[in-house]
């Protein structure tokens, strides 16, 4: 993932202030543009860390939460035919999809910290986070899809490509 200025541009004090601001209840803000920017930066940082992780560690060995098994089994029960290799945004964002996702997501309220926070999700798991390949999803949707991608070996393409580039000296 290409590193831009992101949170590093804030410095330690700015990042600390952003973290403190993000811990306040939502009704303390209204529609503050700065808050949206901080959330976007936090989501970007999460995406960058996750992509670096699946590039460096064989994803089939990753455990993303304490309840990965429960998330995976509930996800595949509710979304047995969902293609996690190449996501269709309509299957996450359409009104019909939202109705199907809502009970699944709410099942993890209290089990997964910040289950409904916004995060970035890659559409094509073989590619990096780019504007064209990224959508905004809830944290539990991210976990469900990425746990499935890891267990079903779809994220191995990222790890294997990175491994090959290191072996050939093209990092």
From TrEMBL:
Pfam family, one: PBDC1
Record InterPro entries: PBDC1-like_dom_sf, PBDC1_metazoa/fungi, Polysacc_synth_dom
A single GO cellular-component term on record: cytoplasm
Domain Polysaccharide biosynthesis: 35-159
Name used for this protein in its record: Polysaccharide biosynthesis domain-containing protein
Organism annotation: Conger conger (Conger eel)
């Amino acid at each position: 993932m290409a590193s831009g200025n992101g949170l590093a541009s804030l410095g330690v004090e700015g990042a600390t202030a952003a973290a403190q601001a993000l811990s306040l209840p939502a009704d303390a803000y209204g529609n503050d543009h700065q808050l949206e920017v901080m959330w976007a930066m936090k989501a970007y940082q999460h995406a960058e860390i996750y992509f670096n992780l699946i590039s460096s560690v064989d994803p089939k060995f990753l455990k993303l939460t304490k309840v990965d098994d429960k998330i995976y089994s509930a996800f595949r029960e509710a979304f047995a035919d969902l293609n996690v290799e190449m996501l269709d945004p309509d299957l996450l964002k359409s009104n019909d999809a939202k109705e199907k996702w809502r009970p699944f997501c709410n099942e993890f309220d209290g089990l997964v910290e910040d289950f409904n926070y916004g995060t970035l999700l890659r559409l094509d798991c073989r590619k990096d986070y780019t504007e064209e390949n990224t959508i905004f999803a809830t944290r539990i949707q991210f976990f469900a899809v990425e746990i499935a991608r890891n267990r079903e070996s779809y994220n191995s393409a990222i790890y294997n490509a990175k491994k090959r580039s290191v072996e050939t000296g093209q990092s």
